[in-house]
Amino acid sequence: MGSRLRRFKAKMRGQKLSDGPDTWCRYKKAQLENKVYHHKHKLPGAAVEVIRPIFRDLSDPELLKKCLHGNTQNPNESINNVIWSRVPQKTFVHLETLSFGTYDAIASFNKGNATKLDILKN
Q1: Is the C-alpha dihedral spanning 101, 103, 105, 111 positive or negative?
Q2: Using an 8 Å Cβ cutoff, are 84 and 91 in contact?
Q3: What is the DSSP string of 4-63?
Q4: Which single residue of 1, 43, 67, 71 could bond 47 by disulfide (Cβ 3.0 to 4.6 Å)?
Q5: pLDDT, tens digit, for every residue of 29-39?
Q6: In terms of domain of life, where is this protein from (predicted)?
Q7: At what angle do helices 95-111 and 114-121 cross, to 10 degrees?
């Protein structure tokens, strides 16, 4: 994919992107000509029909509302990121250090950095 993008970037270098009649975008060109654009699928029709309901379900507005405000759909992914930002993954640490870093990460993840003040007060 990367080499394809580099070739495309090199090919497009110096060209002005426009929405006019000389546009390189076939979809925009079809819109200007009041035609329906038919995308050439690389997948067989049977595969597209199997995949289409999955994409429809994943693009459901109720499901996408969970992704607003930068939240992740998978909270475990986010908590792992918080833990490994506090405890180095590449260097060895003792179990006590790992446990303390994990407790700190979970407390901060659940209630924000204000929990550190509560812990220090007690």
Answers
A1: negative
A2: no
A3: HHHHHHHHHTTPPP-SSTT-S-HHHHHHHTT-------SS-HHHHHHHHHHHHHHT-HHH
A4: 43
A5: 888 889 998 88
A6: Eukaryota
A7: 120
One-letter amino acid at 94 equals: H
> 19, 18, 2, 20: which is closest to 10 by C-alpha?
2
d(CA 4, CA 72): 30
For residues 58 and 10, which has the higher predicted lDDT (pLDDT)? 58
Is 112 in a helix, a strand, or coil?
Answer: coil
77: Cβ contacts below 8 Å, ≥ 6 apart: none
Say if CB 31 and CB 37 are below 8 A apart. yes
CA angle in degrees (0–180, nearest 5) for 84-93-114: 50
Nearest to 18 by CA among 1, 32, 34, 36: 32
